[in-house]
Design goal:
The chain is an alpha/beta fold. The protein is built from 9 helices and 13 strands.
């Protein structure tokens, strides 16, 4: 049994990771300030003897002994939330990384950074490979998140080089699944909720911009495999589904699968919104033996059922 701390553990992705690690027999500490996370996401774990919830903001140092692993997931990940308090967002990314890396150093624990495909910005290289440095606007409305995550990667590398901290870096591409917030502004949850209510489906821009959508179970498998690699492999490594869809194609799939009467409406594209996003997962295949197994239609069916049961009525 490992003693594992997950910052941001009550969030969408974090709660799925908590569940997976508890099922594997580990002792899991979920650290969260509940800004975008929710106790509802981890309610099914509250009676587990090997699960512990701690209310804490990673902006501030936290001390604990006996940790074997740390997953650093704490940070709002949707534009609505990370732009709501941009200064708080970048503090969470940067100070959170410093505090979690310090905790890992003290415990001699492995630590995984949940970075993001947003570090590639609006890319000139397609699909995106890990050695691409990206095309990010450092003063735009999204930069609190993009540059915060880029700085966190820098900190991880410097703690590795300077202090021999055992690090892992993954870059997460668009992920969806149950426990997403219905109002978080991300495209899959937006479309599913609007379709289930027969509301107009909002498309920003002309809808020809592309994304690669990854179901949350595939991501969790990739995260665990990355953490379990030897100390010599630190990443960064892309974790995403390389199948690419336009936003229009996604909207059509959702309407078809829900049987919705929704119509499409178009609004201006937000500033700095990437035109293309697709991971090259050659490295993940080679080093982790990982590739996604759940394709878009299957994943969307799970999402639709979830929001039928738990989403807006």
């Amino acid at each position: 049994m490992k003693k594992i701390l997950i910052s941001g553990g009550a969030g969408f992705i974090g709660s799925h990771l908590c569940t997976r690690l508890i099922k594997e027999g580990h002792y899991v500490i979920c650290l969260d300030n509940l800004f975008t996370g929710s106790k509802t996401n981890i309610a099914h774990l509250k009676d587990e003897p090997n699960f512990e919830f701690l209310f804490h903001d990673v902006e501030f140092p936290y001390s604990m002994e006996g940790l074997d692993e740390i997953y650093n997931l704490a940070c709002p990940a949707s534009p609505i939330y990370y732009q709501h308090d941009a200064i708080k967002t970048i503090k969470t990314s940067v100070l959170g990384a410093i505090n979690m890396l310090g905790l890992a150093k003290k415990n001699n624990a492995k630590i995984l950074q949940a970075s993001t495909s947003e570090i590639y910005g609006d890319p000139f290289i397609h699909p995106q490979v890990e050695n691409y440095w990206g095309n990010v606007n450092p003063i735009g409305i999204r930069s609190c998140y993009d540059e915060g995550k880029r700085c966190a990667e820098t900190l991880f590398m410097d703690y590795y080089r300077q202090n021999n901290v055992k690090i892992k870096i993954i870059r997460i591409f668009n992920t969806y699944g149950p426990r997403m917030l219905s109002n978080d502004g991300r495209v899959v949850s937006n479309f599913v909720v609007q379709a289930l209510q027969n509301q107009d489906i909002t498309i920003y821009g002309d809808g020809n911009q592309t994304r690669s959508f990854q179901y949350v179970d595939d991501l969790i498998e990739g995260m665990v495999r990355m953490m379990n690699t030897g100390n010599e492999f630190i990443g960064p490594v892309n974790i995403g589904n390389p199948n690419e869809f336009s936003i229009l194609e996604l909207a059509e799939r959702v309407i078809q699968l829900t049987g919705s009467k929704s119509k499409l409406i178009f609004k201006p594209l937000p500033n700095d919104d990437p035109k293309q996003r697709q991971p090259d997962i050659t490295l993940a295949k080679a080093k982790l033996g990982w590739e996604p197994t759940i394709e878009l239609d299957e994943g969307l069916r799970h999402m639709i059922e979830y929001f039928k049961d738990f989403g807006p009525k």
